[in-house]
Design brief:
Blueprint: H1 2-10, E1 16-22, H2 27-32, H3 39-46, E2 51-55, E3 58-71, E4 76-88, E5 94-100, H4 124-131
Antiparallel strand pairs: 1-3, 2-3, 3-4, 4-5
Protein name: Outer membrane protein assembly factor BamE domain-containing protein
GO molecular function: protein-macromolecule adaptor activity
GO biological process, one term: protein insertion into membrane
Length: about 130
Amino acid sequence: MLAVALAGCTASNSLVTQRTQGYEIPESALAQIRPGQSQDLVRTVLGTPPLTNEFGGQTAWYYVETKLNTTAFGLNTIRSRTVLAVYFDERGRVRERAVYGLEDGVVINMETRRTPSFGEDRTFIQSILGSIGL
């Protein structure tokens, strides 16, 4: 029994698995994307983009790769995140490509306060009194 317990303690890395979430961006594909290429060629090399944006006649395609460490207890930690952005001009040709990492991101604090609306935030006692007409 002691041998089984010690065997579980010998490899602490076995409790952590590494996986990729989202699109896996191969270096060979990055090298093939150059200014002037068509959207069809980019789609052939990289596949259909999971995220797109269109503004003012210009289009951007985003491919996101997130590398995670997952523990045996289900906790995920992000090792790295890479975003490949391919920007197209009005004619549908590659204008430029950019690769962004976690260090390029900005942390946004989410506002947790709520604006109460009429009838939404009633307590249990208020609900009981309201149901009997008080």
